[in-house]
Amino acid sequence: MSEDRKKLSWLERPLSASIPWLTNELVLFGLIVLLAIVSRLYNLGARVMSHDESLHTYFSWLLYQGGGYQHNPMMHGPLQFHLLALTYFLFGATDFTARLPHAIASILTVVMLWKWRRYLGRPGTIIAAALVLISPYLLYYGRYARNEAFVGLFGVLTLYAILRYLETGKAKYLYLLTLATVLHFTSKETAFIYTAQALLFLVIYFIGRVTRKPWDNTGLFAAFIIVLSVSLLLLGAAGGLALLGRESEALNAAQTAAPPIPGQAVSPFAPVQTGPSLPVLLAAGAALALAAAGILLIIGYGWKALRSERSFDMLMLLGTFVLPQLVAFPIKALGWNPLDYTFQTTIPLWTAIKTGLFKEYFAEFIQQGMARTGIVLALVLILSAALGLWWNKKQWLLNAAIWYVLFTLFYTTFFTNGDGFFTGMVGSLGYWLEQQGVNRGSQPWYYYLLIQVPIYEFLPALGLWLALTFGLRRKSPAPLPAPADGPAPGPDPQPAAPESEGNHTFILLFWWTLSSALAFTIAGEKMPWLTYHITLPMLLITGWALGQLVKRMDWEEFRQKRGALLTGLVVIFLTGLGALLYNLLGSNPPFQGKELAHLSATTSFLFSVLAVAGSLAGITFIFLDRQWHWKNVLRLATLGLFALLAVLTARAAIRAAYIHADDGTEYLVYAHGARGIKDVMTQVEEISRRTAGETNIIVAYDVSAPDTGVSWPFTWYLRGYPNTRPFDQPTRSLREASIIIVDQKNFDKILPVVGDAYYRFDYLRMVWPNQDYFSLSYSRDPEIPFADTYPCTGIMGIFRLGKSTDFSPLCQAVTNRELRAGIFDIWLNRDFTRYAQAKQVQSNNAFFNTEAYTLAGWEPSDKMRLYIRKDVAAQIWNYGVGPSSAVQADPYEQGMTTLEADLVFGAFGQADGQLSDPHGIAIAPDGSIYVADTNNSRIVHFSADGAFLNAWGTFADATLGPVSLTSLNQPWGVAVSPDGQWVYVTDTWNHRVIKYTSGGAPSRTWGFSQYGGQDPFGLWGPRAIAVDASGNVFVADTGNKRIVAYDPDGNYLGQIGSEGMEPGQFSEPVGLAFDGQGNLFVADTWNQRIQSFVLFANPDGTLTFASLAQWDITGWYGQSLESKPYLAVDSLGHVFVTDPELGRVLEFTSTGGFVRGWGGTGFGSGQIGLASGIAVDSQGRVWVCDALNARLMRFTLP
C-alpha cells in the first residue's frame, strides 16, 4: 500500500493537532446537527395547527389535565399522546411545545446517523445527514404533530440494529431491535408495514444462506424447496386476490377526502364482513405450507445450524412478538368478527357456578365477541411464547419484558385503561385494514411516484439510480475496520460463527426503498405524509451512493489539475444547460418576433448558448491540457449535478416549512389548516383581552354534523376559554356571544341570528392541494379513430397504441407550451398563475375560475366566517368604529311571546299518518287538513283533530320518462277550492300543477319544465299555491320569478313578475295568501319583503295585478333550499309569516305593522324545528308545518 493510501483522509484529520479528537468529520457532523436543531425549532409554533394535529394535541392536553386517555386507532398509537402530555407538564401547552417532541425526534434521527459511519462510510454519513437535514418531507413533518418523526427515528434504529446484528451477533442489538419495533407499534400502524419489510428481507436473506450450504439429506432439501415454493405461490395468490377484490370509490379532481373525525371513524368495535374469504383460505394454506417447510428445515438443516444463523434469531424475535398483533386474521378465518368486543350473557358466571348451568353458560359465552377474541388471543399468545422459549429462553424472556412492559404501559396509560391493551393488540390492525378498504384519500396509483417524489424528493430519487450503479456491481465496498475487541457471538453459546456475515448496507436499503414504494402505492390509504416513509430509505441509500462517489474520486488529481476551476465550469455548464432547455421548451421560445417579450426570450436563449458553449470549451481544454481521467470528470460532473439539486431541494424545503407552510399551494399537505385560523384567533384574543379581560369573552363556534363544523382545530385553540358555546344549529341564543365562528354549510342559517348586529369577516379554514393531476387518461371507444386534434403527437405518439385509452390530459401537459410552462412554475415556485391562465385558454371558457388558483380564492378549501358583535367592536377603535348604541339583531325579539301548541300530531316515516319533510298546508271548509308530504312525494289528508284520513301519490321523476297524475316529485304546495271539492298541488320538481278531487282522484294537470321562458305554462320549481274566492288558482313560479294565475281548469288568466327589486318584481317568490278583500300577498324571499297586490278582472276574463303595498322582513337570510317562507291571512287581515330557519311565526297587520311572534327552533310544543307551511282555520287558529320534526302544530291565539 502506498504512503498516500496510509494517510488519514481529510475527514479523519483533526482540526488542530492539540485537539486530536476534534476531526473535520466531527466538526461537519456537529454543524449539521446544529443546523438540524435550528431548522426544527425555528418558529416551531408559527404554523397553523392542522386538523389532524389538533386532534393529537387536544387529546394529549386532556390527558395532561387529568382527563385520562383511551386508545383510538383512528388517532394511531398512544406514545405521541403521552410524550405530549409530559411536554405540557414540563413546559406548558402551546403550539410550540405541542410540536416539540416531534422536532426532537427529527433531530435525533440526524444524530443517530453518526452510528451509521460503518455502513454508509464517512463521506456517505455526512452526506446522508445533510440530505436528511434539507429533505422537504423530513423537515416539514419533523415540525408537525404527527407520528412520522417518531417512526423515522425508530426506522433508522431498526435498520441499524439489523445491520449490526448481522455483522456482530451481539445481543444488545436484539434489544435495540425489540425496543425500536415496540416503540413503533406504540406510535403508528405503519409498524405492520415496517415489520413486514424486515421479516421479508430476513426471510430472503435466511433462505439464501441455508440453500447455499450443503445439506446431508438432499431429498429433504428438495422437499423443502418444493413446499416453500408452494407456500410462496399460495401467499402470492392470496395477496393478488385481495388486491383485485378491493372495492373503493375513487375521488376525482373536484373532490377531496374529509379528514377523520373522532367518534365518526370506523370503531374498533364496529361490525365488519365476517367469514373466511378465498384470500384468507389461501393465506391459511400458505401458513400451513410454511410450517411444513419449517419442519423440513429443522430436520434437514439441523437445529444447531439454524441457531447459528443470525437472521434466524431476528426472525424468531420479531415473528413471536408480531404474531399476537395479527390475531384479527385467525379470528376472521374462523368466521368470527375480530372487532366485536361485546359480552352480554343472560346467565351470570356466579349463577352458573351455583346452579351447575355450565353447559348453558358456555353456549352463551362462546357466542360473545369478547370471549371469542380473548380465546384466540390467548392461544396465539401461548403459541408465541412457546416458540420464543423454544428458540432461546433467556433472550426471548429479556426481549419479551422490553416489548410487553412498554406495550402495556402505553396502551393502558399506565394501567388506567385496561381496554387499551386489546384495542392496541387487535383493534389497531382491524381499524386500519378497514381504512385500506375505504381508500382514504382515494389518490391515483401514481400519487407518490409521479407527484410527491418528483415535486419534493427528486434528489434521492435520482440518487437511487446512482446507488444502483455501485450496488449491483459484484464487488461490494468493504466496511470500516472491525472494532479492536472483534465481533461477539450470538445471544447464547452457539457453534462457531463467522466474524461478520458481510456488508449488507446496499441490499437492505435498496430493499427498504423498493418495498416502501410498492407497499404504500398498493395500500388503499394514500396521504402526503406517507411519502416520508418512502423518502427516508432513499436518503440513506443516496448518501451511501454519493459517499461511494466521493471515495472513488481522485482528490489528488483534483488538487493538482485545477479541479476548483473545473468544478466551476461544470456548474456553469449545468445551469446554462438548464436555462437553455427552459428557453426552448417554455411558453416563450426564442426567435418568435420583435416584440419586447420575444426579444427578451431570444436574448436569454443566446446567453444560455454562450454559457453552455463557453463552459464546455473550458472543460474540454482543462480535460485535454491537464490530462484528466474521464472517470474523474464524470464523477465531478455528477457531484456538481447533485450539489445543484441539493440547492433546489433545500429551497423547496425552506419554502414549504417556513414560507408557504399554511398554503394549499404545497402538495405535501392535505386537509390542512389555513392561515385564517390564526388570524381569527388573533382577533379573538385581542377582543377578549380588551373587552372581557384575559380569555373570558363568550365565543360561539360551529360543531355541526356531519363533519363537526370548525371544531378542529378551534377546540384546541379555544381550550383556555371558559365561556365557549359550541353549537350544532344556529339559534337566537347565540346572540349572547360576542364572537361567532361558523362553518360554510351554515352560512345561510346564521344570517337570521346575526341580522345587522354583527360585523362579518370571511376566511379559509382548511385547504387541500390542487388535484388536477387526477385523470391523466380516460377510457374511449377503440373503434373510433383518433381526431386530428389529438394532442399525443411526436414522441408522445406512442400513446396512440393504446386505442382504448385517451391520454389527452397527459399529452397536453407535455406538448402544450403554456401548460408545460405553468407546470414548471408550479414545480419550481408553487406559482399557479401561468398554469391557471393556460387552463382558462384550454377550457375556452371566459368564466373559468382563475381565482381558485390564488391564495385568496384557493380551491379546494373549506371556508368559515367570523362574526363580531357591533357593540363589542365599538369598544375597539382598531375595528374602525367608535362608541355607539347597540344594534338590535332582531327587531321582532321584543315582541316574541311564548305560545304552546294545543294540538300536535305526525311523526317521521312513510306509514299512514307519518310525514317526511312536509311543506305546505291547506284547510278545507270542513276543517280537515291537507299536507304536502314532500320527501314522501304524496299528499296526506288529516281530520281536524289529527286523525289520518287518506294519502295519495308515489314518487316519479319526469326527467326519466312520462309520469302519471298519481305520481309526484317532492310537492311543496297544496290548496283547496272554496267549496272543498278540489285539491290543487304544485308537483314542484316535475314542474307542473295537478288538480285532484277531495278524495285524491286525479282530474287534470298543466305545466311543463321551462326555466327563464315566457310561456305561461312553462314552470320551474313551483312552490306555493293559493285559490281565491272565485276558485282561480295562483301559482308561485319560483324559479321564473313570477306569479301565474289560472282558472279552476288550468286556463291561463294572467301573471305578474320578473326578476328585480321594483314593485311587482320578485327574487324567489314562495308564499301566497289571500285576505278577505281578495288581495294577494306574496313572500318575496330573497328581496326579504312581502308584497301585496289588488286584482282586476278584464272584459276578456283575464286578470290584471296592481301593486298595493310592501314591507321589509328582517329575516329569510341566505339562499338555502329550506329558507322558503309561507303565508296565511286571518279574518282580521293579519298576515302570518313563517321564518323557516328560526322556527318561528311572525304576525303583521295588512300594511306591515309587527304584531307579535312565537316559536323558536327546537322539539318542544312551543318550538318549531323548521317552519315550512302555515294556514289559518275558520276559528282563527294557526296551523304550522314543522318539516324538521315531521309534524303539524295547531296554535290558538290568546
CATH topology of the domain at 897-1196: Neuraminidase
Number of strands: 39
The parts where pLDDT drops under 50 for at least 5 residues are 1-6, 265-275, 476-481, 483-498
The CATH class label of the domain at 897-1196 is: Mainly Beta
- What is the H level of CATH, i.e. the homologous superfamily of the domain at 897-1196? TolB, C-terminal domain
Distance between the termini: 113 Å
Give the neighbour order of strands across the main sheet.
3-7-10-6-4-5
* Rg result: 37 Å
The helicity comes to 40-55%
Q: How many alpha or pi helices? A: 35
Decide which structural class fits the backbone. alpha+beta
From the spread of the alpha carbons, the general shape counts as globular
Mean pLDDT: 88
Portion in beta strands: 15-25%
Largest sheet: 6 strands, mixed
Under the CATH scheme, which architecture of the domain at 897-1196 would be assigned? 6 Propeller
What does this structure look like?
It is globular and about 115 Å long. Among the domains are: 550-659; 674-770 and 863-875; 897-1196, TolB, C-terminal domain (Neuraminidase, 6 Propeller), CATH 2.120.10.30. Mean pLDDT is 88; it is low at 1-6, 265-275, 476-481 and 483-498. Helix 7 packs antiparallel against helix 24. A hairpin with a 5-residue loop joins strand 15 and strand 16 (948-952). The strands form eleven sheets. Strands 3-7-10-6-4-5 form a six-stranded mixed β-sheet, with helices on both faces. Strands 11-36-35-34-33 form a five-stranded mixed β-sheet, with no helix packed on it. The protein has a four-stranded antiparallel β-sheet with strand order 12-39-38-37, with no helix packed on it. By secondary structure, the chain is of the alpha+beta class. The N and C termini lie far apart (113 Å).
